[in-house]
Write a structure and sequence with these properties.
Elements lengths: L1 E4 L2 E3 L1 H8 L2 E5 L3 E3 L3 H8 L5 H5 L1 H6 L6 E3 L2 H13 L40 H7 L6 E3 L7 E8 L2 E8 L10 H16 L4 E7 L6 H5 L2 H14 L4 E10 H6 L8 E4 L4 E3 L3 H9 L8 H12 L1 H6 L5 E2 L5 H12 L20
Parallel strand pairs: 1-3, 2-4, 3-5, 8-9, 9-10, 10-11, 10-12, 11-13
Antiparallel strand pairs: 6-7, 7-8
Length: about 350
């Protein structure tokens, strides 16, 4: 179900909000276990309602807010928009819509949106908007787990779920918030028969003591398990970097029904500079480093992995939209009639 928090929400009304499939919060509203008054009495300290359960907390820290709006009217409009992507019940495919004029017009120059240098950042939303139907992108949890984009959209008039790494934030390295956000989105899409498109450009998972304190291994494996239980078509397109375990979590290693790669793709166990150090014990500037680095870069190109059929198609960037339309059409021919198995129907909504 969908929920809108428009004022003060405590106790059972908060449970309904966080259990919903879509939660929109109006600025100024409060969603919490108990009121600020009761919290103040319990702790002996003055508790600010917005710090306790305001929209910014749930948009940026807890991730409970899928969308934040300014008015009650905008909240209701957001629910209508969200529901327009979904089927009327879980045993039918999502509805089709006419393809908006101008859809795909940006595909000719899409490669210009991707920096040639692997370490240069960019906003992947620009690439997503070029691929999907015009004005069809509904991003969920945009302020939470910002290294990943999760969004409902349409390609060729049909609903799709989009998961994309966003190098604009932390270089696209997936953190625990992003893992939770993607896992929640996978459950949503599988529950309502929405096929998945993954756009990949990530150096891997964020590492370090902070990541471990946030239980990164468990979050990564929850993400992995949800992806493997996902029963709708999954199509992964590697735009640039795909390193380490994140290669598997973003659909590689037969964790997608189709894996395509742009010629700019790199697939490796880690960044080539670090890989040379790990494999050969060489650092930049030392004798032999440049030759080993060049070979590591060559080995990371998509051609060899395509030769193993771990990447089924290498596509020119400007053909990506047409490729996705075609592959989504092919997988709609399944005998299930566009309805998934709903293997995650009992997965907790607000983990």
């Amino acid at each position: 179900w969908a929920s809108a928090t428009l004022g003060l929400s405590y106790g059972s009304s908060s449970w309904y909000a966080v259990l919903s499939d879509f939660c929109v919060i109006r600025k100024g509203a409060v969603l919490a276990v108990s009121s600020s008054l009761l919290a103040s009495l319990a702790t002996g300290e003055q508790v600010d309602p917005q710090e306790l359960g305001g929209w910014r907390l749930h948009a940026e820290t807890t991730g409970f807010a899928d969308l934040v709006v300014d008015t009650d009217e905008e909240a209701l409009a957001a629910i209508r928009t969200f529901l327009s992507y979904l089927p009327s019940h879980a045993n039918e495919a999502p509805p089709e819509r006419p393809v908006a004029p101008g859809s795909g017009d940006g595909m000719r120059d899409i490669i210009k949106l991707l920096p040639a240098k692997r370490t240069q950042v960019y906003d992947v939303r620009r690439i997503i908007r070029a691929i999907v139907d015009k004005d069809s992108l509904l991003e969920l949890k945009a302020r939470f787990g910002k290294v990943a984009i999760t969004a409902l959209s349409r390609i060729g008039g049909r609903t799709v779920g989009i998961i994309a790494n966003n190098p604009l934030v932390k270089g696209g390295a997936l953190d625990t918030d992003a893992c939770e956000k993607i896992t929640s989105f996978l459950v949503l899409c599988d529950s309502f028969n929405i096929p998945l498109v993954m756009l990949v450009d990530t150096p891997g998972f964020a590492i370090g003591t902070e990541a471990e304190r946030k239980r990164a291994p468990g979050k990564i494996m929850n993400f992995m398990q949800a992806l493997q239980m996902f029963s709708m078509p999954k199509i992964s397109v590697i735009l640039r970097k795909s390193y380490g375990q994140a290669y598997l979590n973003m659909g590689g290693g037969r964790n997608s029904d189709e894996v395509a790669a742009w010629p700019t793709a790199e697939v490796s166990f880690m960044d080539p500079t670090f890989a040379v150090n790990v494999v050969h014990g060489l650092s930049p500037g030392e004798p032999g480093f440049d030759a080993a680095f060049a070979q590591m870069n060559k080995d990371s190109e998509p051609w060899d992995i395509a030769g193993l059929y771990a990447v089924q198609s290498i596509i020119e960037p400007h053909t990506t939209r047409d490729y996705l339309v075609r592959m989504l059409d092919v997988h709609r021919l399944r005998v299930t009639g566009g309805v998934g198995q709903h293997l995650m129907r009992s997965w907790p909504t607000s983990t």
